[in-house]
Fold this protein.
Amino acid sequence: MISRPDQRVLTALSSLEGNTDFEVVMAWIRESREDLVGAGMYAKDEVLTRWSQGAYQALDVFINQAESARKNLRK
């Protein structure tokens, strides 16, 4: 289970919001997450399917935390 980010992590993610270099990285992470959907759909090996699912979930958590960092700081 991935732990919830603490205040320092949320602050760091929030400070990166709007940074053009970080937006490039986020776009790559989003693309990679979507590539995992395709990899999981066509994988014939159960282990590879589960690996793709886990990687997708980890990237999804990161994306969601990065996108909601500022809002979560206000809570």
Remarks:
- Residues 20 and 26 are 10 Å apart (CA to CA).
- The chain has a mean pLDDT of 92.
